[in-house]
């Protein structure tokens, strides 16, 4: 659990926070101080990948021994030796997090999640280092990490299932955010912008393409109101 928490929080945050800026950032308007931290598009990605990972992990947990023709590890006693079953579940979950870091590089629906990946040596080093340590944990971790060495075929299956998160990410990106009206944003600011409630509701009813477009629409409303005030003066 400590290793999983380390790669999901510390290493992943360091890898993604060191992404160099691109020219595409100049095409987006700056976010307002009252805009939500998590947009509907980001919420779609979070929930979409959670569905894939939970479905896959629970399938391996309850049906994995039949899929790989190995001994079941669910009913093992407390101090029983490590099992191939739980090692496969653990290994697959870690690989899912590693490959999902590529999806997390693009949070606005971009298709090419590998664009500019080699321009960030820190990201590449963390991914490569995590993979090497994971191989060492599985093969020489032993009882300390409750793992047993896996065969080449089992490793290939774990990698294949981990790579599935990249394909699933393309499928999630293909679903327009405007179809998912039930999704909510999170992390709003505490102050309200000077826009009437009627105009805010009108903005919410429109289809959201991405976070930057909503900011542009709000800016246009504020700009029109400023012009009206100048004309009145």
Automatic annotation (TrEMBL):
The keyword Transmembrane applies. Keywords: Magnesium, Membrane, Metal-binding, Signal, Transmembrane, Transmembrane helix. The keyword Transmembrane applies. The chain crosses the membrane at residues 46-64, 84-102, 122-142, 154-175. Residues 1-17 form the signal peptide. InterPro entries: ATPase_P-typ_cation-transptr_C, ATPase_P-typ_TM_dom_sf. Pfam families: Cation_ATPase_C (PF00689). Residues 1-172 form the Cation-transporting P-type ATPase C-terminal domain. This is ATPase, Ca transporting, plasma membrane. It comes from Xenotaenia resolanae. The gene is ATP2B1_4.
């Amino acid at each position: 659990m400590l290793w999983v928490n380390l790669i999901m929080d510390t290493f992943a945050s360091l890898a993604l926070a060191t992404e160099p800026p691109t020219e595409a950032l100049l095409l987006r308007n700056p976010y307002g101080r009252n805009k939500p931290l998590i947009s509907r598009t980001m919420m779609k990605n979070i929930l979409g990948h959670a569905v894939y990972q939970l479905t896959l992990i629970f399938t391996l947990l309850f049906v994995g021994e039949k899929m790989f023709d190995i001994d079941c590890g669910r009913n093992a006693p407390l101090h029983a030796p490590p099992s191939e079953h739980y090692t496969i579940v653990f290994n697959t979950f870690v690989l899912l997090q590693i490959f999902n870091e590529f999806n997390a590089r693009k949070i606005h629906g971009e298709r090419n999640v590998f664009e500019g990946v080699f321009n960030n040596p820190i990201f590449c080093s963390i991914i490569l280092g995590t993979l090497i340590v994971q191989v060492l944990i599985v093969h020489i971790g032993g009882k300390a990490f409750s793992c047993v060495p896996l065969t080449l075929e089992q490793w290939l299956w774990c990698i294949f299932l981990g790579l599935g998160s990249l394909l699933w990410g393309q499928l999630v990106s293909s679903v327009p955010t405007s179809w998912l009206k039930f999704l909510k944003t999170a992390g709003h600011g505490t102050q309200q912008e000077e826009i009437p409630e009627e105009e805010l509701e009108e903005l919410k009813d429109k289809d959201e393409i991405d976070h930057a477009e909503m900011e542009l629409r709000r800016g246009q409303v504020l700009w029109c109101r400023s012009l009206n005030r100048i004309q009145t003066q």
